[in-house]
Amino acid sequence: MKRDESRTISSCGYVYFLILVVGVLFILAAGADVSVMGETPAKTPDIGDSVAAETAQAVGDEPPAENSGDKEASNVGEEPQPADQAEEDSEEAADQAWEEILRLSVPPDYPEDWNDNPPTYKELEEYNRRQAELAALAARKAREFYNKYPKDNHANNARRREFELLTIAEQLGNTNVLERLLQMENKRLESGQLSEDARFELLARRVQRKAMKKVKDGMSSVAAELEKGVRSLQSDFGNRPEIYEFLMIVADNSAPDKARRLANEILSGETYPGVKSEARALQLRLDLIDKPLNIEFTSLDGDKISVAELKGQVVLVYFWATWYGPCLEDIQKLNEIYNEYHKKGFEIIGINIDEDKNALNAFLKQQKVEWPQFFDGKGWESKFVQKYRLSNIPEMWLLDKKGCLRYLNAGEDLISKIEELLSEEFEKPVEESDTQAEDTQAKDDQAKDDQAVDSTNTDSTNTNHPEKVEQ
Hints:
The protein has helices at residues 13-20, 22-30, 34-37, 47-55, 68-74, 83-104, 121-148, 155-171, 178-191, 196-212, 219-237, 241-252, 256-268, 273-286, 325-341, 357-367, 383-387, 414-422, 434-464, and strands at 296-298, 304-306, 314-320, 346-352, 373-374, 395-399, 405-407. By secondary structure, the chain is an alpha/beta fold. It folds into three domains: 1-62 and 94-211, no CATH class; 213-287; 296-422, Glutaredoxin (3-Layer(aba) Sandwich), CATH 3.40.30. A five-stranded mixed β-sheet has the order 5-4-3-6-7. A two-stranded antiparallel ribbon has the order 1-2.
């Protein structure tokens, strides 16, 4: 998860970004109608707004042809209604249908007990699965609305709403909506009515969608597919600021040499200040590789922790928080890895960015986390977050037996990396070897013997030739 979700998304948090900001997307989707909701929520302009605005202008679905026979059959035996009354009833029905769409567009509240007991990752998955179903249902209702009430004031808004809600549902993993979403995207592309911004946004979504299909193969595969699509966008649209946002995601999940090249490319281009700031921060972290990492603190348990004192062990530095779902899943896996490899020389140091100490302690006790934790209660302003200019969690850094940082993105194939570093030979730093210590001790003993001999000689001399006789 990023510190600022309004812009770049990167690293491991990208996989879950679409899940955890879906509530915001739902609210944006639900907040466009003033007459029903009573007020219009503030909304930051972005390319996505261009797509939303132009969706109503692009080619949409034609209203379904009414079955006149069914209509006549349904009216048998009924008194004909005056035209004004029928129109009034239709308007009332349309208003009620629109209110239902807005209600369905708002995500369900988190369970209250999540405030005190953070949910498990599976609970979050289930919550988001329900949100995806809700979004799909709201999208279907929106489509029914503009087909049934094509002349209603909300008809165009319903078309836009359907597109937005289908996008949300698909991003949350509801594959049932993909066919309909692709139909709507293709119609918009073929309409010729989309601006360059809206066309870029639509094609960029497709690039992201294709990249995320690789998530089971690891983030490096996601990054490779993402870069392939982004370079295609770059060829068609030039060096738009958004291009560098995507390249930042790729850089965060690339090998050091490639990450440096991409960071330099981002810094030489024209993009958002936040993206350039992240590129500079990445360069800072890349410069730490193969160098000793200086981390010292007093843990929650009151122990003095120093990476320098852990030489000879392989150390994982884990930046995390209890309030972020992917971290909860990580904790369970890291506990298993810790239990298996700790006796072989593996250690974990947690750098926690929570703000509630009691809640953190309760969570650690509940999860039986035994490895030391740094905590200062400052959240994103935490000491080590600021020192290393981090803006994403979770982060996993892996140190070798010399205390040098070897991997910035250790999460992928973590066990293989741990075993690799554990197998490396390690010689104790030549500060004072056992031989040197023995030599030093021998010299000290010899000096004492010499001093004793001198003292004896002096006493002997004084006895034979007294200069003064004490009375």
